[in-house]
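Colleagues,

For the teaching module next term, I've prepared a clean inverse folding example: a structure given as tokens, and then the sequence designed for it. I'd like students to try predicting residues themselves before seeing the answer, so please don't circulate the second half yet.
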């Protein structure tokens, strides 16, 4: 007899230690200002509390894919010297997790204990899944209610960052919980040109020429450029080999 194994929410947490600094993230002026103030509020949190002021710690990052949401979360954690716990909510919804609400509570507790950055990715999945086949409506409703409570009681010395490409389908009650909402848009031609310029500089001159594409995310632009740079490099290596 085999006991059916259950997925535990802790197995779904990613501890990603990739170092990202805020300087590396291209942000428009308004977003940069918001993120910088957020970081400073946490750096000076004791003084802020002494004056009876609250620190913002519940932030929604929303908008285009590949435009810096995950990167920003990592940069904030790094700037504050905090651990980042990444949890993708679509995994919660698709995995057959026993006692999901309880496990979600454990994750929030861990983030609170560690004064960490808790990053909930694909945040829209939590509301969207209501009424799906795997989870009944009641179970999903309970999960949303649990999440609302966890958010309300999340301590100010930890940060909750939630990301979504589909803010329009996020539960209204959840949406109200965020003190800051930061929008990510596809970069303009000018912004992409600056991004390409900087990318180019990292390589020797003979590898610097690549076709620039526009109307794409930073992630797509970077992939496209790096693929061409690699092709040029391989070409050169093959030539040397055959010489
Ligand atoms: N604003 C940005 N500045 C600099 N590089 C960026 C930016 N946005 C994206 N990139 C590049 O693209 C990669 C993917 O970006 P990121 O994971 O932050 O996107 P995302 O907004 O979280 O996308 P998704 O919604 O698909 O999760 C980054 O690792 C980085 O190389
Ligand atoms: Mg992301």
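(Answer key — instructors only)
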């Amino acid at each position: 007899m085999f006991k059916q194994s259950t997925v535990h929410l802790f197995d779904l947490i990613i501890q990603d230690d990739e170092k990202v600094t805020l300087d590396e993230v291209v942000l428009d002026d308004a977003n940069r200002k918001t993120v910088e103030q957020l970081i400073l509020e946490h750096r000076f949190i004791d003084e802020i509390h002494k004056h009876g002021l609250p620190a913002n710690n519940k932030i929604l990052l929303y908008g285009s894919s590949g435009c810096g949401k995950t990167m920003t979360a990592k940069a904030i954690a790094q700037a504050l010297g905090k651990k980042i716990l990444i949890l993708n909510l679509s995994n919660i919804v698709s995995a057959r997790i026993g006692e999901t609400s309880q496990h979600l509570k454990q994750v929030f507790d861990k983030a609170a204990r560690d004064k960490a950055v808790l990053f909930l990715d694909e945040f829209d999945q939590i509301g969207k899944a209501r009424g799906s086949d795997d989870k009944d409506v009641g179970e999903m409703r309970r999960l949303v209610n649990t999440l609302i409570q966890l958010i309300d009681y999340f301590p100010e010395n930890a940060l909750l960052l939630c990301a979504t490409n589909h803010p329009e389908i996020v539960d209204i009650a959840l949406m109200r919980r965020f003190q800051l909402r930061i929008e990510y848009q596809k970069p303009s031609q000018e912004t992409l040109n600056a991004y390409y310029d900087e990318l180019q500089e990292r390589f020797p001159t003979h590898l610097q020429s690549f076709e620039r594409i526009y109307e794409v995310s930073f992630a797509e632009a970077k992939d496209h450029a790096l693929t061409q740079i690699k092709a040029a490099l391989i070409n050169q290596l093959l030539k040397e080999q055959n010489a």
